[in-house]
Amino acid sequence: MPSFGNILLSHKGFKKVMKLSNFGEKFGSSTGIQILMDDIGDALNSGQDIIMMGGGNPASIASVEAVFKARIERLASEPKLFSQMLGSYDPPQGNSSFISDLASLLRRRLGWQVSARNIALTNGSQAGFFMLFNLFAGTFKDGSKRQIQLPLAPEYIGYADAGLGADFFTAAHPQIDNLDDREFKYRVRFDDLKVGADTGAICVSRPTNPTGNVITDEEVEHLDALAQANDVPLIIDGAYGLPFPGLIFTQATPFWNPNTIVCLSLSKLGLPSARMGIVVANEEVIQALSRTNAIINLASGNFGALLAQDLVSTGAIIDLSQQVVKPYYIERLDFTKRILNREMDSQIPWHMHKPEGTMFAWLWFKDLPISSQTLYERLKARNVIVVSGHHFFMGIQDDWRHSHECIRINYAAQSPERIEQGLKIIAEEVRKAYLG
Amino acid sequence: MPSFGNILLSHKGFKKVMKLSNFGEKFGSSTGIQILMDDIGDALNSGQDIIMMGGGNPASIASVEAVFKARIERLASEPKLFSQMLGSYDPPQGNSSFISDLASLLRRRLGWQVSARNIALTNGSQAGFFMLFNLFAGTFKDGSKRQIQLPLAPEYIGYADAGLGADFFTAAHPQIDNLDDREFKYRVRFDDLKVGADTGAICVSRPTNPTGNVITDEEVEHLDALAQANDVPLIIDGAYGLPFPGLIFTQATPFWNPNTIVCLSLSKLGLPSARMGIVVANEEVIQALSRTNAIINLASGNFGALLAQDLVSTGAIIDLSQQVVKPYYIERLDFTKRILNREMDSQIPWHMHKPEGTMFAWLWFKDLPISSQTLYERLKARNVIVVSGHHFFMGIQDDWRHSHECIRINYAAQSPERIEQGLKIIAEEVRKAYLG
């Protein structure tokens, strides 16, 4: 990512004079997700009129905000709850009362056999993944190394740098199924997926950020069987998924068993600021995670837990997801598809991953004459921020051409008018790239 | 810590069947701080009438809570601020507007030459220390190893497990100055302090948790000179210190220069739930830290920043600290000293570290016939929780007898009546230990 890097270096005035450890060399240097977040921050803070379709910021949905506003007013008016919201450290596992209510919701509504011992809260999903990945992969006492196996790339950019060691991820190439209406769908190529002695855990996001893919129930069952046969956990990242925020637009069954680690979040429901990640796993995993959280974070924040407590205890969080949040995103998706079909030059071989979930459109420009990174830069020069697809192919060893032909677009973080404006510019730049 | 460990193992039903990495073996296992936090959580959640003098929970001060209540009501009533409080990811460096206001406060009130590029926010101080320590110590590219040098033990228990590698800390023994009125004071033994090629950074808390010691201005200047001469940063942990929450009861000058990393927090002002750590350092350190934070946490929560923004922009945070928070703790300290002097058997060689800051009394029982850990257990059996002093001597290589003769008491997290009750029980158990 040379041009990203240069931008970062120049605008921050970075001079590398410090003596940093190996950890420092890896984590303190410029990385994909850092650049993505910097772009988001810079765009929000710049005076420029930026159309931000790059980040994962959820939409601001008025009726969801109203729910939380009422809740905050109640918290402020109840002295005991209010004192707790400000002045108590939660245990390292997370807010006990929220955890009990969530366990009971998951039992009641999904039939998962979980208790309060099966849930831990972290300061956002990202912090949860950092801890989980490094608990299960990296270097082991006997000197052996294990990797996190991604069943298919592209996968979430936030995983890319989370490993403490090198060569932390390995990923299988997906099978590309061409569908009607310029749509395609990635499928797990089980023949390209090697799970064995060097696998620490299998991890897949469902729905998948960045593609909007939802791996099928059959794929999940197959992955679960592979994980169990190899005695490693299957991690399902449900940050956009089930049971909340419910951004899955096709049939998909929520999946958990004691060998599965399901990660959930309140971010995409509308609470990214609260940094609330939720991990559902067997007791041993939850205990190891809680201990790790104690060392790294002392305790997690309880703002998210207190904000969402009522929604969880009543189950309204699922209904709000299904009746308000999901329809909102589906409407935005339909709009985006309409504009794309209108604006994209029909002569161009553009495709979109079948949008089965998330808030992203994953566009594939087959045989694109420039790299997706160059396309990103040209769009950025026109004040439109997307994410170049190549960031999402960590763990793929070869320089697969397909990985330089895609971009991710957040179609929900801006108003429809702004999205339309952004898509027009994208269509223009893509046309220029193909046709000059 | 065998007995702690057993309690933990039995009540959590832990069975170690997972294959954990070296990271997992270290971080997912039972550690001092995890046990401390578990005890806090368990005590708060148990039906027992526990006198909790163990944790670092700040006092709930009504007039401080009133300030934050008014602020929350304002946030809830201003749609733009409210949307931001729920629905935006801050940049990895932290909330930009809070950072600017804080930089300008530090310039204005302390004369520190800092800009917004010199400040980063983390999800609590603990997360900041995890990142900082591992950026500067551990294994380096050339295979060499560097340690975090603690100028004197005892030091903050939360540091103990934060290193990714083994032998992460080294500490110098303190000089013990005997003062009047059963008081003593630790001083840095510069002759026992080895800063050299294997030092990654020097770190000291000021005031010191657990002792309430405040290293003198001369000691700080000496440490700064050592750090600069060896080209390593001096980290000053001001979680209880200056300019806020101001829990320093003697003369001490706030210290910062571009080779110094000052860590601050909103926790002891009364906002532990908000998990807000603040790091003030040169631009290179802030950039490396922000990048690390992006990978590990994506973004920090902004609840604390929004809550305290007004206090920081007006400077009221310093006045509130000096005029409300500090006097509150001094009153509690005076009460504690009075009860201790009344309740402790005068025949017993008990001493208290000169209470120059924090919210802790550090009691030293010279030649105590039982270990401080056994004393902890006997107190726990009587529903009084303190912390055994031996946890705070990480980095001390020998089995120094003094390290098993001390306990830390939080004298402010409970009502005076409860503290009095707890101190009576402590006095009884200590008497029994000495005199049978």
Characteristic terms for this protein:
homodimer; 436 residues; alpha/beta; Aspartate Aminotransferase, domain 1; Aspartate Aminotransferase, domain 2; 8-stranded mixed beta sheet; 13 helices; disordered N terminus
Written description of the protein model:
- 2 copies of one chain form a homodimer.
- The first copy, chain A, is of the alpha/beta class and 436 residues long.
- Chain A folds into 2 domains: 2-62 and 321-435, Aspartate Aminotransferase, domain 1 (Alpha-Beta Complex); 90-316, 3-Layer(aba) Sandwich (Aspartate Aminotransferase, domain 2).
- Chain A has helices spanning 2-12, 22-27, 32-45, 62-77, 79-87, 96-110, 125-136, 217-229, 283-297, 303-314, 316-343, 372-381, 416-435; strands spanning 51-52, 119-123, 138-139, 145-150, 169-171, 174-178, 183-188, 199-205, 234-237, 260-265, 276-280, 350-353, 360-365, 384-385, 387-388, 406-410.
- Chain A is globular and about 65 Å long.
- In chain A, 57% of the residues are buried.
- At the A-B interface, α2, α3, α4, α5 and α7 of A face α2, α3, α4, α5 and α7 of B.
